[in-house]
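Minutes, project check-in
Item: structure for the 129-residue chain
Input as provided by the requester:
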Amino acid sequence: ARLAPASGRDGQLSVDAFGAAGSPAARTERLVLKRSDALLVQGWAYDPVRDTPCEAVAAVVDGRAYGAVYGVERPDVAAMFGAKHANTGYRLQVEASRFGPGRHAFELRCLQPSGRSLASPPMSFEVQP
């Protein structure tokens, strides 16, 4: 699926892990995956403009959307920001073999029923040939 361009970059889209599944140091600035790896992204997301949780969270890789599991309980986030943030966690795992070799553009989106979405800052990862 493809998404329209994001409405802005003012959502709360926290990335706790951006790495290979099973990697002990999952968050990295330069991510290189083997074709046999899986891309793992997890964190929490909230729409501060509407002051509500996101309707859904998607990862957009090279313009194609991959839906994340959203609504994961995050007591750490609720303790810091309040009860509205209790179920704002997300988790996404996609096999690297679904992407071609080379560098890929990546961003997270906080999606709302109106079709509006807020995007994370752009990131990237690479898949080895």
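Outcome recorded: Helices lie at 75-81.
No further action items on this chain.
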